[in-house]
Each structure stands twice: as structure tokens, then as C-alpha cells.
Amino acid sequence: MAQFPGIGRQLAAAAVAAPFLGPEEERALALRWKNQRDVKAMHQLAQAHMRLVIALAVRFRHYGLSVPDLVQEGHVGLLEAAARFEPEREVRFSTYATWWIRAAMQDYILHNWSIVRGGTSSAQKALFFNFRRIRAKLSRGGDEIGNMEIFSQIAKALRVARADVETMDARLSAPDLSLNAPLSESDGATASERVAFLVDDKPLPDEAAGLAIDAARRIDWLNDALTSLSERERRILRERRLVDEAATLEVLGDRLGISKERVRQIESRALEKLRQALTKRHMESAAEAMI
To answer: For residue range 20-44, what is the model confidence (pLDDT) as tens digits?
Structure first.
């Protein structure tokens, strides 16, 4: 059907063939569904408004999603509207259903338009669906204004931050790109993929595992080597070398009742004893690995 582009022929034919409902007939079907839970009446009410669903789906086709999929989501919104409709309020069903249909389609677009999840707040939805329209309107004004001024006016009109407008402009300006896509189409199968140019300074998994094992081994060696020191030597080394905020020689001397020069001498001797113990342990470990 020419009036419903992108819609399957069978679905379009069914929508066109559905009879229009007058206000009284529409109200009678809604009352049968609400009071008697007449499923047939609800389906008649929904089928008569499939034209509305398809018309709204066609309006959203420019977001690059399948129109039949939009129709399906809109039909869910239509059924939700039928379930919640209150005929005693004297409002036409099409007026009430339009909001539910549009909301269902907009949620579907926001979740599927991009692999990058966008904002789902009411302000972010308004920005997403009105950005291009407002920008085009401002550009047609005749005055030469820059992007920053346009962004500021859009932010003011939609009551959002200008940074959000700039982010939305970047998202809408280009489609998603696969990291496995070649950088150059002309090189064919030999072209480098985009993922090859992502720099990661972290070690590879096997290197990370090796570093973790070595770190645990070094801690064990250090704890063993500390047992070769006296209690005072261990205390001085811990407070001078093994804490984030090292104590000064003077402070340690006051705590231990000795001069700061004596603290320095004990520290130097303890470091030498620790170095010798660690060297011995390393050589023993190397010898065991060679056996």
C-alpha cells in the first residue's frame, strides 16, 4: 500500500480493511471490554486503530529501524491503551491511545537505535526526539549562528544542560562503528581492524597471573627474612620502610629512648641483614627450579 511504505502487504491490507468506528460504537466496545472483559470487543477496538499505529510507525522510520518492528511495538502500546481506557471520561480512544503508542515506539527506538545505551529520562527522551527538528528550525532562521549558540538555544528550549546537547549532537552525527571493521575498504581482507589500534597498557592475562604469583612469593620471602632480625630492628624497619607515612629518625629515637644517629645505624644494619637473607632465599629458589 502506497500510503503505508515499508509495511507488509498483508498487514497494510488488514489495517485498511478495518472499519472506522463512530463515537458510540467505540464507546460500546470499550464498555464491553471494561465491564465484561469481552476480549473480542477489545480486539475489535484495537484492530480499528491499526491505521493509527502504522501512521505513527512511518513517522519514526527515519531512525533506521524496521517499520514492521515499530508497528509491533506500537501494537503493544495500543493494547496497553485499550486495557487502561476509561470510556466514561468522554475522550476519543484514538486521542488516548496515541500517547501509549508513541511511548512504546520511542522506548523501542531508544533501546535499539544504538549499541550505546542512551539516557531514558524524560529530558533525555525529549532531547533525542526533538534535537534535529529544533536544530533545523534554528538553522532556517536566516541568521548566521554558530554551533555553540545553537546548542545553547536547544538546551534552553528543552531545559537540559548544554553539555547534554553537545553529546547528543556527537551521537547523532555518525552511526555506530564496529571495532572489527577495516580502517580502509580499498585494502579488502588485508586492511587492519580498528580494534588493533586500541591501546591497553595493562599486562596480558598470563603476565598478570605471573605478577600476582611473584608478588605473593616476594611477600613470603620478606616475612621470612624479617624473622632473622631482632624485635627492635623489625620495628625500626616497619616504621621507616613498610608504612605509607614513614617516621623520622628523631621521632623513632624519642620512642625508643636512643639518639637518631643510633636509629640510623640500626636501620642500616637491619637493611643489610635483610638483603643477605633475601639473596640467600633467591639463590635457594633458583637452585630448586634447576633440579
So the answer is: 888 888 889 888 988 888 888 888 8
